[in-house]
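The protein record minuted underneath.
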Amino acid sequence: MSIEKMPTVCCLCHTNCGVIAHVEDGVLVAVKPDKDHPYSKGHICPKGAAAPEIVYHPDRITHPLRKTANGFVRISWDEALDEIATRLLEIKEKHGAHTLIRCGGAPMTSAAWDAFIQLTASYGSMNFAGASHLCSIPRLVAYKSVYGNSTGPDYLNTRCMIQWGTNPTESRSVGDSGVCNGNVSKVIPNAIKRGAKLIVIDPSRTKLAQKAHIWLRPIPGTDAALALAMLNVIISEQLYDKDFVRNWTVGFDELAAHVQDMTPEWAEGITSVAAENIREVARTYATTKPGIIREGNFVDQSTNTVQMVRAIGMLIALCGNLDVPGGEIFHPQMKAPFLTTRPEAKSLSAQTYPMFPIIPFPCITDALLTEKPYKPRAMIVYHGNPLMINANYERNKRALEQLDFLVVCELFMSATAEMADIILPDTSEYENYGTCIKSCGEGSGTYVCLQNKAIEPVGQARPVFEVEYELAKRMGMDKDYVWSDTEGCIDHRIRATGITLADLKKRPLIHIAKPIEYKKYMQNEFKTPSKKVELYSQKMKDLGYSPLPIYIEPHDIAADDDYPLIGTGRRSGVFTHTRFHNIPSLLKIENEPHVRIHPDDAKARGIANDDKTVISSEKGTIEIAAKVTDETLPGVVVIDFGWGNPSDGGANMNVLTSDDVRDKITGSTPNRRFRCQVFPTP
């Protein structure tokens, strides 16, 4: 029988590359790159190519499961849905609607954004939590405070690229902020060939750092001092765009006075980066126009995230790189509220973190263990693994044990799913419809792309929106729904575009906005209280935060005799966060986690390459193989993140990390900086 070739998108990371699903007799046999897709242009990564292995893996969860004293047992969908509905209604009656938490993971699909959101709101709770305090949302909060929204990089026209705490060619996420820049493996190399300069700011010598014209290696957790020193150079040497500053900023004089003493020499003593190198980077970025600055998760996962990224936003604005070709561009965004009903209740963290739109998960952990401001009772987890993602694994485990009821919807048994009362089998991205919305960096505007349903669900897996609606019916909340299945939900989600799922089935990629226009602030102004770029934020001052970006010294700045090394993390692009460490083809690339340790530190401890080691911190201990390399700085060890699910047997880095100290604005925890010690295994 002939093979049907179906265009769709890969949803195993945020890049959402265009791919072709090859289906034979209803079976997904291969996934190939789509050379005609405007976003990825023929790119596919190992995990995208491994889709058939993921779909048909023997360990996949394919039936609803209930936890018993003797382990999990298979139950029917009716039993699962009836039990969930009954338990949730009992909890609402006894403890109140606000005690339900919806927890999500990285929103790589429309389902990951929206699943169980309406159910939670109809129930009466606005407690939406996840890993957002560790990924992108802290940066969004920072940029909104400076110029009202986030931006996307225009790699195709830039002449200077700063990659700050990010490694996009490895993580395959060059298309930041939903912006299409072409084949993600070639965008930066192609820009270099055109003559663009590459600056990498990263303590590790990544493959990207090896290609850089300039590479800075700050000590983890000190990036804010580096950014402030760059502002010092650009302002003191008058390298900023004077017309833009005069017409479109507020607080320039305050900022100039604020950074006057934050010289490169001051920053050198904090970051270990030589003062002359700081000056070189500042001057290069300010004078090589247009330019972009792309920051990554490394800066999210610190205790000074927002203030650090505010400084980056100010660098972008002061140098005239805001909403210009080759700079950071404001792309059109679809505005359509998903919820049809919204309870009056505030979220659990609304008072503690008023600028953060989602509950930082550490607030959930606090509430479960202290019962303040109240104790959450039930949690629905979709596309997430909060037990492993969050800092301080043991504390989070104790917290989740306090829940009265936990439901997890998953493909494979995760560390969080192991704790669930009910596990629901999720469909893969090839077993249901979905959409993604992107903006094309080549100037052709925003488009909606179809995530096609290529095959029927494996086993008894069900699309999540159909599961949600069935639960809503059982709980008497279906009146709040304008959809009853996946297709209806998609139409509801994209209604603001003026197109429907039926349109996408005929034409899987449809442009919905005109080509990119630049300097839109000339007509629309900035979406800030002053309508200008706010170098000084009165709103932040009113909320009790510093109105100017500041450097906050890491709490563990002093070396500890017991834990003299600084630990940080590495997220491999081979896997998806904590997922797919059980897939054979991916394990051929990276078969176990490692700790990267500098030769000087390894020699002092009697550790050789591939030796098993013990890493300890004040929070816990793990065993992991060593990779002795000068990729990392002396005194800094880099530990692979994402391992530790039941199926992979690897060490979980977050056994070592702490949630004791957090970013005051977002609750971000220092997952990328913690004190530790490494020993050879006895």
